[in-house]
Amino acid sequence: MSLIENIASNKLVTSAIKDQIILEKDIEEVCYEKHWENMYTFRNVSIDDIDFKSIYIKISSEAIFVNLLTNYTAIYDDSMKFFGRNGISHQKEPYIDNGRELEEYRKKLGKFTILNKTANVSVLKSDAYGCIIKLTVII
Amino acid sequence: MEAKFNPLLLSTKVRFALAGIIILLIFSCKKIVEGQLEIGNKLTLSKISSDYKARLSAIKKDFFENKIDEKLNPKTNQKIVWNPDWEHPTSQIVNDSISYVFYTLLVDIKTAEHDKLEKIRSNSYLIVKNEKEFFRGIYFADSSITKSSTLNFTGKLLLTNLKTKKSFIIRYANGKPFDNFTKSQRIASAKLMSTPGSLSYWGQNCHQEMKYCVFAPAGYTTCGGTLEVEISPNCIWPNAHCGVSWYLVDSSEETVCEDVWFPDPPTDPGDGGSGGDNSGGDYDDESETDGNVEINGTQDPDFPSNCASWAYTTASVGSYQTSGVTDMRFDFVTEYQGTDGKLHVDYVIYHFDKTLYFEFPKTRLDGTIILPSEAARLTALAKDAAEEILESQVESSPPPASGAPTTLIMNRFLNLLKNQVSAYGGRVTYKNNYGTPSSAVRPYTKGIGGC
Q1: What domain of life does the UniProt record list for this protein's source (chain A) (predicted)?
Q2: A65 contacts A55 by C-beta, under 8 angstroms
């Protein structure tokens, strides 16, 4: 299974994308912060042996957002291995933080079908935060 | 023989002269009346008229005094009630002298699953011509269902005069009405229109009956939780969509004169079918959107919005905290295959020229307080979400090769931002409704630390 399939099979992600709701009973034993209705940050979740520091999920009437944050930057560097695609890479202008240049890269991997829905998937990499996998499902 | 003065002849001349003067007077009177319409840039109802709101109030008063509401609603079916959305009209002037005001029709209805009255938006309108003629307008796209947007509309408008019950079909292409009438046909048609009891110019094309049916959902959809009605010109039952089935709530048969010329028809409402320009309410006008676009220039980082961009301060009145943001911007990357067959990548960034004001509630529904820092964090997430949705939309449906008008994309983003912020009960506006002080107006920034 590819990483994207493993992410989709995570109970929380499945609920968000398939049912468009996160049930309280599903998160009783998970460390999380609830920002608003259907808007959460879950902490320390492991998927496919990758430790994610956080998974941010937001379900709105227009789209579902799933952002997964990890220190494991190999996901960006070897996207073919993890997603079966190389994608298109972009390097953004370095961000200056206290005189230090922080580089940022983004790879647009394109559309994936997840749970019968279409998701745009991007991977970002920067020394500022590590690596982020972004899934945007337009409703 | 000397010609003699003939008083009878003179009298005839005088009579002709008098008749000529009278005719001239009649024409000049007519000219004055028409002139009032032509100089009617002053007289014609316009959003910039100083008495705009007062005249809208007069339209509303007329509507009820003339019992137009009774003509708008079915007599036999009390399950639904149509009401104009008086708070959010749009207005337009065609041919410099004819005004139209559009009010989206809202439907009060009891859905099958929820035994309570729901208010549903529709894609039909109360259309008021020159502040005195009331029409019901239903836009039918070229597909059979009206759900499509009325922005740059292509299809037909069924326009029914609510007093005379005369109905007209007007054809549209890309938001503009069109017809194939000759000048003489227009004149003849207009004459007949003003003749009481006359219905048509071409008898064979009149008296044709057009059915339309209104369908309501049995409950909320599972995708988006919205409620909408569907109007079908052929009474085709809509397919089950997003987990809901449909039931018939209203139907009507109209006598339609399809090939009768309707003078000075309105253009499309231009609101995407979602309601008005809010000039009567407390929203603002997106036509005010102004900004610029830069392609392949300096890039913003992909870092999230910096919460410090929103310095929320408690409004002196109401239950809001407000902030202003200058240099609001959004960006995206597009990839496309050029005519050279190569993959091209463009970086596109849009900047708003005007300050955007954000109004955020001070408390949650359960009464707990929303601190300014939390409001800022949620607003930052809303902005980033709007940007991501826009980018996904652009990927799915890229702008034309010739490029999309800047304001079109900016308004699309603004609508997404409004929707995202409204999920928290907040609002985004160009207007400083609550006197946000300059200390609470900051430039938009991105950051690595978030809030």
Answers
A1: Bacteria
A2: no
Q: Which of A53-62, B71-80, B406-415 has the lowest mean pLDDT?
A: B71-80
Alpha-carbon distance of B39 to B55, in angstroms, equals 18
Interface probe, candidates A34, A57, A60, chain B, greatest B C-beta count within 10 A: A60
Task: Confirm whether the ipTM is greater than 0.85.
Answer: yes
Report how far apart the first and last C-alpha atoms of chain B are (Å, whole number): 114
Count of CB contacts below 8 A, A vs B?
81
Angle, CA of B359, B48 and B94, to the nearest 5°: 120
Q: Report the number of distinct structural domains present in chain A.
A: 1
Work out whether the CA dihedral B105, B108, B109, B113 comes out positive or negative. positive
Burial B87-100 (b: 16+ CB within 10 A, else e): ebbbbbbbeebbbb
Q: In 10 A of CB B243, how many CB atoms? A: 12
Q: What is the CA radius of gyration of chain B?
A: 28
Is some CB atom of chain A closer than 8 A to the CB atom of B56?
no
**Mean pLDDT on A28-34:** 90
What is the rounded distance in angstroms from the CA atom of residue B175 to the CA atom of residue B271? 11
- What is the maximum alpha-carbon separation in chain A? 46
**Chain A residue with minimal CA distance to B375?**
A35
Give residue B387's identity as a one-letter amino acid code. Answer: E
φ, ψ at B430 (rounded to 5°): -85, -15
Cβ contact, residue pair A36, B301, below 8 Å: no
Q: B153: part of which helix (H) or strand (E)?
A: none
A20/B223 Cβ within 8 A: yes
Task: Considering only residues B221 and A72, tell me which one the structure prediction assigns the higher pLDDT.
Answer: A72
Is the CB of A95 less than 8 angstroms away from the CB of B388? no
More confident: B184 or B25: B184
Specify the range with the lowest mean pLDDT, choosing from A29-38, A108-117, A127-136, B286-295. B286-295
- Angle at which helix B406-422 crosses helix B372-396, to 10 degrees, equals 130
Contacts of B304 in chain A (CB under 8 A): none
Q: Is B385 on the interface with A (CB under 8 A)?
A: yes
- A134 with B378: Cβ contact below 8 A: no
Residue A132 is part of which domain span?
3-138
Contact partners, residue B2, CB within 8 Å, separation at least 6: none
Tell me if chain A has a CB within 8 Å of the CB of B373: no
Structure-block tokens of residue B167: 């109905």
Q: What percent of chain B has pLDDT over 70?
A: 55
Asked if B420's CB is within 8 angstroms of A20's CB, the reply is no
Confidence of residue B201 (pLDDT cuts 50, 70, 90): very low
| Torsion angle of the four alpha carbons B178, B183, B185, B187, in this order, in degrees rounded to the nearest 10 | 110
Q: How far is A87 from chain B (nearest CA, A)?
A: 11
